[in-house]
Specification:
120 residues, two-stranded antiparallel sheet, two-stranded antiparallel ribbon, 2 helices, globular
C-alpha cells in the first residue's frame, strides 16, 4: 500500500518552479468558428528519481531553480536538444518528505489540513 507524502524544499515556504509545457491545438471534431475549437493541453516534465526520495516514487518532477527560471521561459529555446541539455544540467533539488493522511488522494478534499503530518 502506498503511503502519501507531502514534499517541500528545505524552506517549507519556498515556492518551487516546475518545468512544464503547454500547447494549443484545434479540436478536429469542432467547426472552425466554434467557441471551443481550441484546446489547451499541459504537462509537468518528470525524470527518473535518483535522490533519496526514490523509495517514494520512481519519477520526480523537473524543478527549475529560481535563478534559471527566466532561461527556462525564454521563448527562443525551442530546439529539443537544447531543452534536453538544459534539463539534464539541473541538479535534483533537496526535497523534504512528510507523511500525510490518505485524504490527500481524492480531488474532493481540499484544505491546509491535507499537508499536516500524520504518524505512519
Amino acid at each position: 500500500m502506498k503511503t502519501p507524502h507531502y514534499l517541500h524544499g528545505e524552506d517549507e515556504d519556498q515556492l518551487l518552479g516546475f518545468a512544464g509545457l503547454y500547447e494549443f491545438w484545434p479540436d478536429p471534431t469542432k467547426a472552425e468558428d466554434a467557441d471551443d475549437k481550441w484546446l489547451v493541453t499541459a504537462t509537468i516534465l518528470t525524470r527518473a528519481a535518483h535522490d533519496a526520495l526514490g523509495h517514494i516514487h520512481d519519477r520526480t518532477p523537473v524543478i527549475i531553480p529560481s535563478d534559471l527560471q527566466d532561461q527556462w521561459l525564454d521563448p527562443t529555446m525551442t530546439e529539443r536538444d537544447q531543452v534536453q541539455h538544459f534539463i539534464d544540467t539541473i541538479l535534483e533539488p533537496n526535497l523534504v518528505p512528510r507523511v500525510v493522511g490518505k485524504d490527500v488522494g481524492s480531488v474532493r478534499n481540499d484544505g491546509p489540513q491535507l499537508i499536516e503530518a500524520v504518524s505512519e
